[in-house]
Amino acid sequence: MSTQKIGVIVSSSRPTRIGPQVAQWVASLAPEGIEAEVIDLAEIDLPFLAEPEQPATGNYTLASTVAWSERVRTFDGLVITVPEYNAGYPAVLKNAIDSLHAEWKGLPIGVVGYGWGAAAGAARQLGEVLDRVQAVHLPGPGLSFGKDLSPEGEVLEAAPVEDVRSLYSQVLTAVREKVTV
Prior knowledge:
alpha/beta
C-alpha cells in the first residue's frame, strides 16, 4: 500500500495564535500509511483575492496563487485546524479557499475546530463552504479550551485523540474511494 500525503492546515495568521501547536498535535496522530505535513497559511501569504480572473477559469497568473495551487495538488487530502473568531472562521482561510477552484473538487477535507465551544460555529460555516466548493467534507472533533486545550495551546490529557485518529481513517477511506472512482 502506498503512503497517502495529508496536509494539516494552520488556518490562523494572528501573531498570538495557537494554531501551529494544534496542527502539530493533529499531525502527530497520523496513523501509519499517512504522511502528515503541516501547512501554515501565514507562510503561504496569499494576497486577498488578487487574481485578475475568477478562480473557476483556472488561469492563475500570480506566483503566489500558482504556488498555492501546486501545493494543494500535492496532497491526497487535508485536515483543517480551525479556530473560531466572532462565531466564524479566519479570513485567511476563506481567502485560501476562494483563491482556487478546481483543486477542491472531490478533495477529502477533515475539520478539527478549537476554541471556546470547540469552534462549533466556525466548523459549521466552514463545512458549508467546503460543501459548496465540492470538497468531500469530513467533520471532525472540536477541542474546547479548559477541557481539551489550554488557552496557551497546550493539548490536555482529555483531548479527543481517538476522534482525531477516526477522522484520519475517514479521510483515508475518502482518498481510496476517490482513487477507485
